[in-house]
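Pasting as-is:
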Amino acid sequence: MAKAARLNDPIGHSPSMNWLVKGLLIGGAIAVAGVAIAGTGGLAAAAIVGGAAAGGAGIGELMSTMSWAPKEIAGAIVGAGSGNVYINGRPAVRAHLDKVACDKHSGTPPIATGSSKVFINGLPAARVGDKTGCGGDITEGSGNVFIGGGTLQTDVIHPEDLVPGWVHATLFVVGAAAAVVLAGPVVATLGLVGGLAGGAGGGWFGGRVWGEGSDGQKWAMLGGSLISGALGTKGGVWFNRNYEITSFGVGSNLGNINITSRSTPLKTTPLQPFYVGEEIPGNPKAWTSGRGPVRYLSGIDREACRLHVKDGKLYDNAGNPFDTSDAKTWDGQPKAIYIMDKEGKLFASMEQKPFDFHHSSLDIIGNHLS
């Protein structure tokens, strides 16, 4: 049973703005500390701090609406109260007929819920925890009179709407901009869409399972948003890895945006075991067919063999297109031997000359290893 409500008992609202600011400050402070430790600077640092602050603000606001969050006193029950039923010498109050004055909302909204079992003057008796029409709660009542029964709603309960729309808009813009800076527009967009869809889906599911406005619904909304946002982000990373967007100026029908598949990265095959350590004095040397021990190219030789990739095409060190149309596996003078070093740089030799970072490009009978 809950404490009986009386005339002049206080009402309260969620500390949404207060907790939003605290979440913003905590999120920003954690990000600042992380940026300082990692030594990140410039636009990336600003994006990290801004994104963390926006995220912390959103979580702080959501947590403020949980049932366990303390209410901030925002007004009182103003009347008129029962004319013939008194509790502790003060008029008892009822749903629908009696009103409240709220510092955060205009007008005098009614008490919107009361007991489903106990009635005063034919109306549900109001108790601590019952809702007001502006979304607030009755926060204090009698210390020795308690009223049982379920909850009966008599009037519309409006959302609290304690945070101005421009604050939400600003946080959204800051968070989205931070995501674009840190991850790019594709990852940011898919992560945002995934988060919004997951939050909506989690809210629907939580409302069906635990009830509208329940803590369970809010946790489901947060969890759905985080999980779907993460999946959307992974989808964006996969898209960026496999596709490329080229814009030639955005037209009214987006016809100037072209999406193309990225070329598959070149890979090298594993080294033959007997080449490992051949450069160490005293170890056996690998031989090319009829040509003696392998020779390692100098730095100048390697630079002359350096290839460059541009728009998915290969160019030699002089900037000419690298032609491999007549390449052969073994004819005494193969067209090219491709090698990629550990940094991903691509090289090609027009002769049978191995590179020193790869030990050898040919096995003993002259087959290419990469």
